[in-house]
């Protein structure tokens, strides 16, 4: 049976002024909130637990279970922090969601806050996306004016304020504890765990940190019920999610589908690889996940199957590369990103990405050695699992997987520059002349 | 010497008792490299391994700092029982510096786990890729944890052939602390120290990733107006540093050569140095230090480790201010004033004979009508216990007088009664450890950071980790008090007693009374309370009323020694009152003399007044700075007028200029001795440098000998034997002072009451010769309230002239939240000594006026 799209989060994206509260309400918005406010808070948690919703930010931790980790109320504040610091290369699901349907996120935040007993929720938005910040600000104002925020929401007696906070441009602040430090006005670096945020998070109070898409999925779960949610997806990866297709694909964009769909199916919906080309490699969940090749076209895109195939579902950021792309060049660009974004706290990530970049740049320039390839793998081994947080681990994934599938290209880097083997202008959708000049004997 | 039939029941200054072993709480059993061990719950794996003798390499880890897990050098393989009870390997190697041992855990270090070994080698290689190979010229080379652990846990060769990260070097964080960023491995020990321990965040991480670095901040951004350093330091790229009193500790805990001190940089190699343990001479805290010297020259001092006192920290003054001991103005031979009135070198025999003859003549003038009769002793406040004891015995036995007073600062009879009643003989009544445990600590006349650096750090630790409440009776809330999260009980100078009497009676101070009523609460009073009539009496009453324990925390190193050794006109050694005949008999028996003078002696002020009035025949003066005395001008005239003056000094001073005989004595590095902390804890230290210089007790013994009196204090052993034999006193004590609080002075328009205290770094004599340290001193300012500033017509930052009939001081005004009609000045800022310029101290009324328009801070 061919999988079909399941537009839930994206249902109203094509409506006129989809971001406005009126459009959202016309399409049935805030019905989930009304239902939730009529339930016991604990029942909402149970419902989300039963739905099997797993964190959509990459790690896939069961959302309801995370909520359940909060200690019993002690009279002090508890916080919901929504992680909207989406900044991984390839990942581009939360930004369009917040642009097209901000009220969905706000409704999710209200329901979640109600469920966990939070009266002040925070929305931490990536600093670079000012347009999203403005839209969210406006949406919060609209929701507040309509009585969905503030005191005694919809006559329920439940109070909630949302603070929208803009980051300052650091990828590391997508790591939940670094995000909390940044939100507190400190330097964005990951915290030592334990204590986990559920115990001592924002301002050392019990805190739930969830991804935008996870929270945006909550209203539909409350409205449709956990069984409805579980009717989609696989047994252990239930529900739907946004699949962000980018790169050498005919119709790139957001495809909302049940988890477990395959890239082959998604490519069919997206019109296939760009005309005249073949799939070479792809990332299943952003640049931090080991790359896949054409042999993985039929791997079901759920947490378990992707893991079994040697990668991670991550953020379902499917970056598609055709045969014109140099894997060495792609991996080098990603590694440069990690070097730039390493927070600097721990040695393996700070120094490792610094070194990896230099080795990769040598190979890209055709000036590597065979020993460099072994060095790359050994450095990755010395970083993976040794760094303070997952950023260092993520930096090694594209390198080790690329050497695994395309070792020949790295060997070629010992004598031929990547842009000679794969002229960049062949990869581009538009014709252009590369700015940089060839190096060494190839100049 | 008479031997008592029954030995003393207590010793004069008993050795500190061994800390009681804390009852063991819950423990955890686990193994490291197969060795079973049991540790208290919560113990970090790296600590537990240390106890087993297993050294796991590390950089960011420091036992006194919170775990960071930043360097990742201490990775180990860990197996732990899962929920099912089955032992399972943790998927990643774990940082042993952040991992608490849990029951049944099995830890495999680099010795038994190839995985841990490879992880450590990998991290070490990464640490070294950007580290310069400049060990041969680096100050840390030879004592460098990175160098050492690269040898023990690193690869033999590097695979890094690429471009290293470099920085312009060095950054001057202050005039004293320099930072070579390319050597930094970003372990964050320094930043964590400044944040967690000292609380004066003068450096922090900046930028990120491979560009991450330690940097300084613009002080104006952080709002440290008025606490900017004295020295030039504004030239570096990232802004000006500000004054920190503890910054030297960051140099010591830096595991690489990134942080260095200007004083020691490029001066020496660690393997050329000889180390001698010592005790810092700059305050009554008794910090353990390590003196590193080479061929008779001290090159640096480091913090020694003593968990009961200074843990592993010392103030910058203790660390860097040591050049005074070898200053060019050291007196190396005895000097005798010749007929022409000039001092000329003399032999010891000649000098002692001249001194003895002069003192004898002063005691018994040829002309019986001469009013200038008798000899008094002013020994100064920086003595070891042995030297203090020798001065006291010299005065009483050789000179037959109780005219001896170790207080070289403002003092009062009330204070003397307090010291005799409450302090003398009560050693280790309140200790540093009590600061950790106290629920609340009230500071009165004590600015902890400036006057008691280690007590400040221990209090801050207690505030941060155990929620100790600190309260301070003072004119204003200093940055030090803010960093203790302290509560200010504002009191204009002179009204402190009123505030103390209000605790427990005044409803507005009910919260304070309740805090002080809780078990373990402390009241710490400083020496400055001597300037407040009724202050000590009120403190004693407060302690009785609330049950809080009361301790005296003086500033100078010799203050407690002086009290214990009886360097007070009414007090004999061990708290024996002069007025108590039994005490005098006891002491006379121990000293083997007929009787101890029974007449209460004269205080420092009375002695100087007598000399000034021509009523004193001679003076024996120890290390005394005339500018420290309540009225330096009067003291100078007094010393000019006293017929015969003997000075025992390390360096030339104002006393030298007036002395008839000068006898050189040894500075602390050139003698052994025992300092006594404010707690009454003896801090013995050995001699660091070989020297011909003699300690005061030995010089006094020989001077007494020349006078025909045997003191029996020629050697340290002899002094100790006598102290042991003499022991403490369990008889009646001096009665408690009961002086009523005085009415606050009337402040006329244009006048204000003076508030003042010493800053840690100022114009003090023991800091001379250390220019880099001097640059980190706080810029001297005059603090006034906004109301006072408006009334005087002075704007923030403009010059304010503070004057008395004696003189005027002009300093930049800093508007501060404090009571109106009060002006605060640093007591002894370089070139701006309050007592010297104004001849007054805290509590006096001074005149205020706008000063010159622009005032440059002196440097």
TrEMBL record, chain A:
<dbReference type="GO" id="GO:0046872">
    <property type="term" value="F:metal ion binding"/>
</dbReference>
<dbReference type="GO" id="GO:0051287">
    <property type="term" value="F:NAD binding"/>
</dbReference>
<keyword id="KW-0285">Flavoprotein</keyword>
<comment type="similarity">
    <text>Belongs to the complex I 51 kDa subunit family.</text>
</comment>
<protein>
    <recommendedName>
        <fullName>NADH-quinone oxidoreductase subunit F</fullName>
        <ecNumber>7.1.1.-</ecNumber>
    </recommendedName>
</protein>
<dbReference type="InterPro" id="IPR019575">
    <property type="entry name" value="Nuop51_4Fe4S-bd"/>
</dbReference>
<keyword id="KW-1278">Translocase</keyword>
<keyword id="KW-0408">Iron</keyword>
<dbReference type="Pfam" id="PF01512">
    <property type="entry name" value="Complex1_51K"/>
</dbReference>
<dbReference type="GO" id="GO:0003954">
    <property type="term" value="F:NADH dehydrogenase activity"/>
</dbReference>
<feature type="domain" description="NADH-ubiquinone oxidoreductase 51kDa subunit iron-sulphur binding">
    <location>
        <begin position="328"/>
        <end position="373"/>
    </location>
</feature>
<dbReference type="InterPro" id="IPR011538">
    <property type="entry name" value="Nuo51_FMN-bd"/>
</dbReference>
<keyword id="KW-0874">Quinone</keyword>
<dbReference type="InterPro" id="IPR037225">
    <property type="entry name" value="Nuo51_FMN-bd_sf"/>
</dbReference>
<keyword id="KW-0520">NAD</keyword>
<dbReference type="GO" id="GO:0008137">
    <property type="term" value="F:NADH dehydrogenase (ubiquinone) activity"/>
</dbReference>
<dbReference type="InterPro" id="IPR019554">
    <property type="entry name" value="Soluble_ligand-bd"/>
</dbReference>
<dbReference type="InterPro" id="IPR050837">
    <property type="entry name" value="ComplexI_51kDa_subunit"/>
</dbReference>
<dbReference type="Pfam" id="PF10531">
    <property type="entry name" value="SLBB"/>
</dbReference>
<comment type="function">
    <text>NDH-1 shuttles electrons from NADH, via FMN and iron-sulfur (Fe-S) centers, to quinones in the respiratory chain.</text>
</comment>
<dbReference type="GO" id="GO:0045333">
    <property type="term" value="P:cellular respiration"/>
</dbReference>
<dbReference type="InterPro" id="IPR011537">
    <property type="entry name" value="NADH-UbQ_OxRdtase_suF"/>
</dbReference>
UniProtKB/TrEMBL annotation, chain B:
<keyword id="KW-0479">Metal-binding</keyword>
<keyword id="KW-1278">Translocase</keyword>
<comment type="similarity">
    <text>Belongs to the complex I 75 kDa subunit family.</text>
</comment>
<dbReference type="Pfam" id="PF22151">
    <property type="entry name" value="Fer4_NDSU1"/>
</dbReference>
<dbReference type="GO" id="GO:0051539">
    <property type="term" value="F:4 iron, 4 sulfur cluster binding"/>
</dbReference>
<dbReference type="Pfam" id="PF13510">
    <property type="entry name" value="Fer2_4"/>
</dbReference>
<feature type="domain" description="2Fe-2S ferredoxin-type">
    <location>
        <begin position="26"/>
        <end position="113"/>
    </location>
</feature>
<dbReference type="InterPro" id="IPR001041">
    <property type="entry name" value="2Fe-2S_ferredoxin-type"/>
</dbReference>
<feature type="domain" description="4Fe-4S His(Cys)3-ligated-type">
    <location>
        <begin position="115"/>
        <end position="154"/>
    </location>
</feature>
<dbReference type="GO" id="GO:0051537">
    <property type="term" value="F:2 iron, 2 sulfur cluster binding"/>
</dbReference>
<dbReference type="InterPro" id="IPR000283">
    <property type="entry name" value="NADH_UbQ_OxRdtase_75kDa_su_CS"/>
</dbReference>
<dbReference type="GO" id="GO:0042773">
    <property type="term" value="P:ATP synthesis coupled electron transport"/>
</dbReference>
<dbReference type="GO" id="GO:0016020">
    <property type="term" value="C:membrane"/>
</dbReference>
<keyword id="KW-0411">Iron-sulfur</keyword>
<dbReference type="GO" id="GO:0003954">
    <property type="term" value="F:NADH dehydrogenase activity"/>
</dbReference>
<keyword id="KW-0408">Iron</keyword>
<dbReference type="Pfam" id="PF22117">
    <property type="entry name" value="Fer4_Nqo3"/>
</dbReference>
<dbReference type="Pfam" id="PF10588">
    <property type="entry name" value="NADH-G_4Fe-4S_3"/>
</dbReference>
<dbReference type="InterPro" id="IPR006963">
    <property type="entry name" value="Mopterin_OxRdtase_4Fe-4S_dom"/>
</dbReference>
<dbReference type="InterPro" id="IPR050123">
    <property type="entry name" value="Prok_molybdopt-oxidoreductase"/>
</dbReference>
<dbReference type="GO" id="GO:0046872">
    <property type="term" value="F:metal ion binding"/>
</dbReference>
<keyword id="KW-0520">NAD</keyword>
């Amino acid at each position: 049976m061919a999988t079909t799209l399941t537009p839930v989060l994206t249902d109203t994206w094509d409506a006129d002024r989809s971001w406005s509260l009126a459009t959202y309400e016309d399409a049935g918005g805030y019905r989930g909130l009304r239902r939730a406010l009529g339930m016991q808070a604990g029942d909402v948690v149970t419902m989300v637990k039963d739905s099997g919703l797993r964190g959509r930010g990459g790690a896939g931790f069961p959302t309801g279970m995370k909520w359940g980790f909060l200690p019993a109320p002690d009279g002090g504040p508890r916080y919901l922090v929504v992680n909207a610091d989406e900044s991984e290369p390839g990942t581009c699901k939360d930004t369009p969601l917040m642009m097209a349907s901000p009220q969905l996120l706000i409704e999710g935040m209200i329901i979640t806050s109600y469920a966990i007993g939070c009266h002040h929720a925070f929305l931490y938005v990536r600093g670079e996306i000012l347009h999203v910040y403005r839209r969210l600000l406006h949406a919060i104002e609209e929701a507040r004016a309509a009585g969905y925020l503030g005191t005694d929401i919809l006559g329920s007696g439940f109070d909630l304020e949302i603070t929208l906070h803009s980051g300052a441009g650091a990828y590391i602040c997508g790591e939940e504890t670094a995000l909390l430090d940044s939100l507190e006005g400190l330097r964005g670096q990951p915290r030592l765990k334990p204590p986990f945020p559920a115990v001592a998070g924002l301002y050392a109070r019990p805190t739930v940190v969830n991804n935008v898409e996870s929270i945006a999925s909550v209203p539909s779960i409350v409205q449709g019920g956990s069984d409805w949610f579980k009717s989609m997806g696989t047994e252990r990866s239930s529900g739907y999610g946004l699949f962000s297709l980018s790169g050498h694909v005919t119709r790139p964009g957001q495809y909302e589908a049940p988890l477990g769909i395959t890239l082959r199916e998604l490519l069919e919906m997206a019109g296939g690889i760009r005309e005249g080309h073949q799939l070479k490699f792809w990332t299943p969940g952003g640049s931090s996940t080991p790359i896949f090749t054409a042999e993985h076209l039929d791997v079901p895109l759920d947490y378990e199957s992707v893991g079994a195939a040697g990668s991670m579902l991550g953020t379902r950021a499917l970056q598609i590369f055709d045969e014109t792309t140099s894997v060495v060049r792609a991996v080098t660009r990603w590694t440069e990103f990690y070097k730039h974004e390493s927070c600097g706290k721990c040695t393996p990530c700070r120094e490792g990405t610094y070194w990896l970049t230099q080795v990769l740049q040598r190979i890209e320039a055709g000036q590597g050695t065979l020993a460099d390839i072994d060095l790359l793998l050994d450095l990755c081994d010395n970083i993976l699992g040794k760094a303070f947080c997952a950023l260092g681990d993520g930096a090694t994934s594209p390198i080790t997987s690329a050497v695994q599938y395309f070792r020949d290209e790295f060997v070629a880097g010992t004598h031929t520059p990547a842009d000679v083997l794969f002229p960049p202008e062949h990869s581009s959708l538009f014709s252009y002349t590369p700015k940089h000049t060839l190096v060494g004997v190839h100049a | 010497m008479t031997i008592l039939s029954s030995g003393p029941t207590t010793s004069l200054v008993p050795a500190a008792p061994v800390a009681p072993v804390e009852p063991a709480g819950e423990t955890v059993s686990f193994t490291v490299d197969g060795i079973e061990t049991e540790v208290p719950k919560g113990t970090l794996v790296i600590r537990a391994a240390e106890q087993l003798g297993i050294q796991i390499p590390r950089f960011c880890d420091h036992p006194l700092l919170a775990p960071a897990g930043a360097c990742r050098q201490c990775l180990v393989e860990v197996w732990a029982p899962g929920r099912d009870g089955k032992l399972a390997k943790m998927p990643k190697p774990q940082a042993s510096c952040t991992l608490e041992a849990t029951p049944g855990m099995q830890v495999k270090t680099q010795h038994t786990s190839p995985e841990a070994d490879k992880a450590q080698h990998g991290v070490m290689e990464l640490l070294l890729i950007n580290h310069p190979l400049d060990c041969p010229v680096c100050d840390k080379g030879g004592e460098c944890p990175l160098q050492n652990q690269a040898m023990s846990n690193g690869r033999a060769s590097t695979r890094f052939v690429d471009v290293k990260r470099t920085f312009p070097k060095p950054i001057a964080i202050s005039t004293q602390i320099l930072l070579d960023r390319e050597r930094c491995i970003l372990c964050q020990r320094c930043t964590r120290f400044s944040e967690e321990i000292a609380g004066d965040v003068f450096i922090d991480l900046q930028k990120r990733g491979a560009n991450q670095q330690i940097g300084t901040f613009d002080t104006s951004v952080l709002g440290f107006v008025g606490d900017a350093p004295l020295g030039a330091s504004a030239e570096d790229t990232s802004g000006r540093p500000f004054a920190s009193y503890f910054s030297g500790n960051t140099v010591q805990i830096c595991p690489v050569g990134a942080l260095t001190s200007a004083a020691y940089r490029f001066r020496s190699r660690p393997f050329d140095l000889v180390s001698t343990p010592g005790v810092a001479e700059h305050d009554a805290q008794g910090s353990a230090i390590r003196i590193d010297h080479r061929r008779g020259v001290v090159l640096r001092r480091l913090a020694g480790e003593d968990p009961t006192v200074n843990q592993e920290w010392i103030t910058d003054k203790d660390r860097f201010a040591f050049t005074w001991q070898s200053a060019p103005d050291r007196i190396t031979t005895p000097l005798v004033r010749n007929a022409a009135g000039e001092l000329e070198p003399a032999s010891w025999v000649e000098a002692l004979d001249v001194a003895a003859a002069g003192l004898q003549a002063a005691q018994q003038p040829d002309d019986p009508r001469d009013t200038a009769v008798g000899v008094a002793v002013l020994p100064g406040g920086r003595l070891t216990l042995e030297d203090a004891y020798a001065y006291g015995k010299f005065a009483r036995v050789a000179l037959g007088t109780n005219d001896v007073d170790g207080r070289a600062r403002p003092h009062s009879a009330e204070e003397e009664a307090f010291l005799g009643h409450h302090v003398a003989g009560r050693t280790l009544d309140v200790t540093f450890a009590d600061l950790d445990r106290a629920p609340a600590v009230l500071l009165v006349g004590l600015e902890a950071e400036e006057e008691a650096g280690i007590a400040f750090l221990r209090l801050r630790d207690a505030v941060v980790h155990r929620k100790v409440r600190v309260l301070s009776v003072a004119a204003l809330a200093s940055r030090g008090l803010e960093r203790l999260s302290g509560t200010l009980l504002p009191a204009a100078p002179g009204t402190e007693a009123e505030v103390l009497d209000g605790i427990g009676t005044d409803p507005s101070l009910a919260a304070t009374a309740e805090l002080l009523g809780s078990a373990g609460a402390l009241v710490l009073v400083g020496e400055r309370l001597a300037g407040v009539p009724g202050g000590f009496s009120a403190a004693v009453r407060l302690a009785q009323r609330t049950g809080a324990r009361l301790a005296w925390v003086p500033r100078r190193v010799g203050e407690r020694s002086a009290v214990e050794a009886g360097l007070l006109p009414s007090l004999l050694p061990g708290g024996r009152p002069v007025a108590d005949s039994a005490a005098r008999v006891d002491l006379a028996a121990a000293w083997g003399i007929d009787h101890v003078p029974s007449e209460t002696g004269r205080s420092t002020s009375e002695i100087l007044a007598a000399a000034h009035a021509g009523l004193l025949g001679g003076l024996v003066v120890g290390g005394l700075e005339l500018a420290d005395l309540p009225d330096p001008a009067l003291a100078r005239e007094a010393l000019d007028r006293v017929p015969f003056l003997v000075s025992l000094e390390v360096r030339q001073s104002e006393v030298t200029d007036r002395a008839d005989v000068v006898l050189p004595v040894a500075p602390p590095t050139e003698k052994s001795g025992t300092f006594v902390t404010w707690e009454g804890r003896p801090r013995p230290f050995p001699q660091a440098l070989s020297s011909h210089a003699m300690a005061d007790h030995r010089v006094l013994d020989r001077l007494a000998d020349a006078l025909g009196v045997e003191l029996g204090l020629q050697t340290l052993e002899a002094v100790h034997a006598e102290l042991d034999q003499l022991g403490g006193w369990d008889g009646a004590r001096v009665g408690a002072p009961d002086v009523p609080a005085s009415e606050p002075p009337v402040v006329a328009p244009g006048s204000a009451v003076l508030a003042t205290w010493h800053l840690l770094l100022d114009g003090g004599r023991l800091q001379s010769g250390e220019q880099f340290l001097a640059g980190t001193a706080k810029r001297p300012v005059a603090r006034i309230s906004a109301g006072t500033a408006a009334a005087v017509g002075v704007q923030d930052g403009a010059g304010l002239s503070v004057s008395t009939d004696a003189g005027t001081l002009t300093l930049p005004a800093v508007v501060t939240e404090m009571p109106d009609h009060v002006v605060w000045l640093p007591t002894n800022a370089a070139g701006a000594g309050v007592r010297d310029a104004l001849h007054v101290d805290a509590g006096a009324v001074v005149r205020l006026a706008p000063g010159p328009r622009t005032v440059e801070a002196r440097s």
